[in-house]
Amino acid sequence: xxxxxxxxxxxxxxxxxxxxxxxxxxxxxxxxxxxxxxxxxxxxxxxxxxxxxxxxxxxxxxxxxxxxxxxxxxxxxxxxxxxxxxxxxxxxxxxxxxxxxxxxxxxxxxxxxxxxxxxxxxxxxxxxxxxxxxxxxxxxxxxxxxxxxxxxxxxxxxxxxxxxxxxxxxxxxxxxxxxxxxxxxxxxxxxxxxxxxxxxxxxxxxxxxxx
Amino acid sequence: xxxxxxxxxxxxxxxxxxxxxxxxxxxxxxxxxxxxxxxxxxxxxxxxxxxxxxxxxxxxxxxxxxxxxxxxxxxxxxxxxxxxxxxxxxxxxxxxxxxxxxxxxxxxxxxxxxxxxxxxxxxxxxxxxxxxxxxxxxxxxxxxxxxxxxxxxxxxxxxxxxx
Lengths: 211, 163
Known about the structure:
Shape of chain B: elongated
Distance between the termini of chain A: 44 Å
Order of helices and strands of chain B: HHHHHHH
CATH architecture of the largest domain in chain A: Orthogonal Bundle
CATH superfamily of the largest domain in chain A: RNA polymerase sigma factor, region 2, helix turn helix motif
CATH topology of the largest domain in chain A: Rna Polymerase Sigma Factor, Chain: A
Oligomer: heterodimer
Helix content of chain B: over 70%
Order of helices and strands of chain A: HHHHHHHHHHH
Radius of gyration of chain B: 40 Å
Largest sheet of chain A: none
Mean pLDDT of chain A: 78
Radius of gyration of chain A: 18 Å
Structural class of chain B: mainly alpha
Largest interface: A-B, 54 and 37 residues
Number of strands of chain B: 0
Structural class of chain A: mainly alpha
Mean pLDDT of chain B: 67
């Protein structure tokens, strides 16, 4: 297998604005430096830039807006403490660091719910829906996709979510998960194929019934 | 009919586009003003972390002195103390055995050795300690030899007494 390049990564999948944002913006380093010195405005700018992506990652798994906000706040609290204490040393890799913290936090949350599911619904084990399940009734295609994602293997789902919800490049996902890019590309491709198969199943069943 | 590569890629592209829509939908579901709330909640953590903490070195030192010499290696120290006590005890018993054996000086070594054996027979009941006892015994014997070698003085005394 050919080694994956950044160009390959950008060509594969992702079409959203978020997924195009692979490289770290040039103005981020001074922003982080100011934030580390206690500049509230700089810190707020960092949050404004990344909070929605972290929120989307948490929301994808938890489906609960309040839980997703709690997780997002917890992630930024960790980042704030480490940044303020001068423990952010991975210069140029802020996004990987941020999403590593976020992925760990989401993983912890899922693990906690697996140990002690808050609701009796077995779906809670897969989706970590501790409170109300918010459904996008306006878009049934997205509902079906959500259901299909909950059927993915944990490792495959994590790659898909980091790629599409987190908007990370495969190089960054490799840094977050500590795995080779080739493995992640293969895992992403496999996940898309599974999702496609799962999404096509009900449609073909419906077609079969209608004929 | 099997799909060709272009069809597969286009299907993957559709799923990928759907995933991006889902991601946007999830991001858009964030409550109004949540970034500001997170900023307000976490900014104090940044500031408190960036100010250097006051640190009482004297308290830390006294705390270190109180604790560090108790915990670590205490089992090792206890074992060493026991081994030393056993060795010293064996030597003392050997000496006493020599003193109370009512034999003349040239046979003192033999009496001491017998005392050693009696001692180890006495403590030999402790199963699982055989290795340690063997080690102690070896050490004791070598110590005994060393001491015995230096006890030419007693020979002199005996000679002195004999004369």
